[in-house]
Amino acid sequence: MPIVVLVLLLVVTIRSFGSDSLLGASQISLLAVSALCVLIGMVHLHVPWASFEKAITKNVASVASALIILLLIGALSGVWMISGVVPTLIYYGLQIIHPDVFLVSTCVICGIVSVMTGSSWTTIATIGIALMGIGRALGFSEGLIAGAIISGAYFGDKVSPLSDTTVMASSSVGVPLFKHIRYMLITTIPSLILTLIAFAVIGIIIPAVGSHDTTAFMTSLSERFTITPWLLLVPVITGVMIARRVPPLITLFASTLLAVVFALIFQQEALREIDPSLFKAAMRSVYDSTSLTTDNAILTDLVATRGMTGMMGTIWLIICAMCFGGTMSAGGMVSAISRLFIRMVKGRTSLVGSTAATGLMLNLAVADQYLCILLSGNMFKDTYDRQKYERRLLSRTIEDSVTVTSVLVPWNTCGMTQSTVLGVSTFAYLPYCFFNLLSPVMSVVVAAIGYKIKPPELTTTSQQELSHKKHTMS
């Protein structure tokens, strides 16, 4: 009953508020259904309130570090933009665009920007719009261009330590962030390679019939910001810290602080536009929403930032979702639903396949990727524990099936948002989102192969039986 009520509430919420449902309506829906879970549990199942309170507290406490990471992600995204780090990456990235490799370049550029910002939505709503206009001028179909943009943006969103969905997928099942990202590369890199090959072949088969000069956009970038290779030191140093497995909180804080220093050195004019006081401007670029005036509408949207305040809606959603998960767990409802899918589990491949199918089903039913990530984790983590598989396999499968497919559902918040932003219907770009389509398939394929998947640990009894069987065969 709670799942049915939640789906109905979210359908009405999404239709009424659209992408703005994340600003509060979805959170209220979660709290309302949480109350329903408590009512059913206390009246019908005779579960004491103390059990619900304990489960809610435990769930919220489990994501405490993730909430701090999200705040630092908001700070980093804002200051990287104001410091000129992201504009510099875009400036140099645009120079490699050529009609013959436009689709591949589009996918790569969106991937890089999304990795640096940690947000597919921001990438698509900014540089994605610019690339959409260039692609139209070159004569490519809108669905094809949108497919390349979305494929690259969601690749970057998926592997970026700055991504809120990546943080949620790992933290919701108790997997360290960088461990989760490294394990995802096993399925993500092959999917990206196949995607780039597909776009390269299409680019050869469908030649460009127009032309577009990117000089104007690059000129606007260089006029607004000081573009220098020195700014690339920030992402390089951040990458080194990630590679050396520095804890995420330290990495994010250090990278933010470094970007603030570079902003004070290279972008004093931009900072003074935010506030005459450089100190106050630097602080606001970290925690507050900011905007800069440019002579290019696309660039103006690109350089607008949200800072820490922009993450409050996501944090609010996570807390409400953990309340819902706690009440479902305390009432025994999660385990009851899990049993429906566990019946299909016969081995490693079916376990991953069931998880992926559940993620796709939740994207269709719940219509919000954040809720789907949390629900999938709550439903399957006990099953993976019982089957003796590492939880990083679960977190990777959730990302492969939930995060990247949400944009393919027309009534999902992601699908509605990207379709509106790019001006292309979901069904028009769906066939060309190769990365998004390949990811869940690749997850099941790798599971079937068993690459880098530790087999379940044998119990003492099983080891004795296996040893006896080998002795008998000898």
What key attributes describe this structure?
74% helix; globular; mainly alpha; 474 residues
- Count of alpha and pi helical runs: 26
- Topology as H/E string? HHHHHHHHHHHHHHHHHHHHHHHHHH
Helix and strand composition category: mainly alpha
Biggest sheet record: none
Measure the end-to-end span: 56 Å
Q: Pick out the low-confidence regions.
A: 458-466
Round the Cα radius of gyration to an integer and report it. 23 Å
Anisotropy-based shape? globular
Helix content: over 70%
Would you give an account of this structure?
- This protein is an all-alpha fold.
- It has 26 helices and no strands.
- The protein has helices spanning 2-17, 25-43, 49-62, 64-82, 85-94, 102-117, 120-125, 127-138, 142-159, 164-171, 177-205, 215-224, 233-243, 248-266, 268-274, 278-287, 297-303, 312-330, 333-342, 348-365, 369-386, 391-403, 413-422, 426-429, 434-449, 460-473.
- Helix 11 packs across helix 25.
- Mean pLDDT is 83; it is low at 458-466.
Write a concise synopsis of the structure shown:
With 474 residues, this protein is mostly helical. The protein has helices at residues 2-17, 25-43, 49-62, 64-82, 85-94, 102-117, 120-125, 127-138, 142-159, 164-171, 177-205, 215-224, 233-243, 248-266, 268-274, 278-287, 297-303, 312-330, 333-342, 348-365, 369-386, 391-403, 413-422, 426-429, 434-449, 460-473.
